Amino acid sequence: MITTDVTIIGAGPVGLFAIFELGLLKLRTHLIDFLPQAGGQLSEIYPKKPIYDIPGYPTVLAQELVDNLLKQAEPFKPSFTFGERVETLEKIGERDFVITTNLGTKINSSVVVIAGGLGCFEPRKPDTIGLTNFENGKGISYVVLDPEKYRDKKIVIAGGGDSALDWTIFLADIAKEITLVHRSESFRGAPDSVSKVQKLAAEKKINLLLNTQLTEVQGGNHLEKVIVTNLKTNEVSSIEAENVIPLFGLSPKLGPIEGWGLNIDKSAIEVNTDDYSTNIPGIYAIGDINTYKNKLKLILCGFHESALMAHSAYKYINPGVKYTMKYTTVNGVNSF
Known about the structure:
Layout: E1 2-3, E2 6-9, H1 13-24, E3 29-33, H2 40-44, E4 50-51, E5 60-61, H3 62-73, E6 79-82, E7 86-92, E8 96-101, E9 106-109, E10 111-114, E11 120-123, E12 154-158, H4 162-171, E13 177-181, H5 191-202, E14 207-209, E15 212-219, E16 223-230, E17 236-240, E18 243-246, E19 250-253, E20 264-265, E21 268-270, E22 283-285, E23 290-291, H6 299-317, H7 328-331
Helix pairs in contact: 1-3, 1-6, 4-5
């Protein structure tokens, strides 16, 4: 059995930053993730996607951020279990928990931090004829792992959220021809990204089809064209395309965590914003997996939640012990 102070479920960016915050308080951490490596969605879904809202970084690639977080956590010597899914949680005595994975690994800790992002997730697929025929390398991709795959290709992106906008902007200088298809006249993404997409369309660098949806995808052994329908006029037209990227978000599923007795609202864990604790003492939830009034699903908000959680976890593990706040700008990481 692995014994530690804090078990962190989820090795995405928020879980990785929690290692640092807990480490400053001399708390040992062990992370569990179903994916084969650290990084969560950043590494698995869009490692080369630029991120623009990390303080101090005008832009940083997703995998670069993960690598930096791992380097930042390294002095605190975290341990990891990858490729295993958390299955059961058992309370031992007054303060300890034992978590068991699907492969039988057991981790004993005083605190459990759920930082599982969206939990177990899968892409939302549009109701498009023939879509599944071109999955698995034949032209349909629900994530962008390597932008170079689309160099000098004719591609269609479908969606109206941040991912669709960001990838349209990023791939505009890579793809031979790019068409963004959206079912509405308004977008759900950041206003700055919307402005950039509209500018690209005005400059004829991309094709922008609004009030339009993917109807069908066609081809032989590989995707060759896309059929789209204008939702206002019912006009049907075809677009030559070698790749289609439907970006309609992810369907979150909590998996076995849903049966642990936590207060859950729409597949998210309710928390107290004083310290991001759940209704079960000793269990916290940080990042996209939690919910509270005015919640913003931003990495930087998850970082804030990690800091407050860590100080609460310290008090939970060390009841009655007074802790004096220290600053890394004065002491340096190695002095903690």
